[in-house]
Design goal:
Blueprint: E1 2-9, H1 17-27, E2 31-35, H2 47-51, E3 56-60, E4 68-72, E5 76-80, E6 92-99, E7 102-110, H3 124-136, E8 148-153, H4 166-169, H5 177-189, E9 193-194, H6 195-199, E10 209-210, H7 217-220, E11 223-224, E12 227-231, H8 233-236, E13 239-244, E14 260-265
Parallel strand pairs: 1-2, 7-8
Antiparallel strand pairs: 1-14, 2-4, 3-4, 5-6, 6-7, 8-12, 9-12, 10-11, 13-14
Helix pairs in contact: 3-5
This protein binds one DNA strand through loops.
DNA sequence: ATGACGGATCTAATCCGA
């Protein structure tokens, strides 16, 4: 049985609900994980997505900033947000999806951006980001007996070809060595597989985000791979297909991130 | 070196993103 999961930092779900609907109609993933919904739970525009078959919805929002949600065509249970770093912000939501006889644990993450200065003493936001990623290392891909997927906007581009210029990005938050080491440690400690890089060799450029500030995002193509899909080894063994929906960056009124889809064969 | 854009908020200017 095939299972397709998508992740997308939508940068305000109220402003872009029609783009979400367009994407769901275009690709119809089983599950869509959204980040930066930027609204409270009672403001989440769930009805248009339910009409498209995504009747199972878990929302963990907050006012104005951050916020994550999971839309699913298949039943969700054990819905559980976790307050990472004890900050009280909405950056994570877990749920278990059931398909046929199989079950998959889902972890939707929005890792802190970390501010401008890559020094935890001078910049508390960077310290928060480092602590957040350090805490993520405690999340085991095989915990609880249900194989898990961890996906979302991790706000770190760990590999040299996850950024347009490794050399010029070494001091830029999202690609500094201390961040990439932290993320790689979380990947290894949790026993996760970076399935995007199973599909696309590390020697090739791979981006999921292009800044709003470029005059022409496509021409300059100064992207970063900030969005990720990690899977437990038993799920990764059935990994079949990756799609990074780059055309979505050119849609009218776009998010600065594009959807990432991963398809797995279960059993 | 700076600012380029775009979103949310006590709708005006300020904070935030990465």
């Amino acid at each position: 049985m095939a299972f397709t999961l998508a992740t997308w930092n939508i940068n305000s779900v109220r402003l872009r609900r029609e783009l979400v609907a367009k994407f769901l109609k275009l690709r119809s993933p089983d599950v869509l994980m959204l980040q930066e919904i930027k609204c409270q739970n009672d403001q989440f525009p769930g009805k248009p997505f339910a009409r498209l078959g995504y009747v199972h919805q878990a929302v963990h929002g907050q006012k104005g900033y951050h916020g994550v949600a999971i839309l699913s065509r298949l039943p969700l249970d054990d819905v559980s947000p976790r307050d990472w770093c004890g900050m009280g912000d909405s950056r994570h939501l877990a749920a278990t999806v059931t398909l046929g006889g199989g079950r998959v644990r889902l972890h939707n993450f929005y890792v802190p951006a970390g501010g401008d200065i890559p020094d935890p003493d001078a910049n508390p936001k960077f310290g928060h980001k480092l602590r957040f990623v350090a805490e993520m290392a405690s999340l085991d891909s095989r915990d609880g007996g249900i194989p898990a997927v961890l996906a979302g906007d991790l706000n770190i581009a760990p590999l040299e070809n996850d950024v347009w210029s490794h050399r010029q990005m070494l001091d830029v938050v999202s690609h500094t060595p201390v961040e990439t080491a932290g993320l790689t440690n979380a990947l290894r400690q949790g026993g996760w597989v970076d399935v995007m890089r199973e599909a696309v060799p590390e020697s090739e450029k791979l981006y999921t985000w292009w800044s709003y500030r470029a005059r022409d995002w496509q021409a300059s193509d100064r992207g970063r791979r900030l969005d990720h899909v990690w899977a437990a080894p038993e799920l990764a063994a059935g990994f079949r297909k990756l799609e990074v929906l780059k055309p979505a960056r050119g849609w009218s009124g776009p998010s600065d991130h594009v959807p990432v889809l991963a398809t797995f064969d279960l059993d």
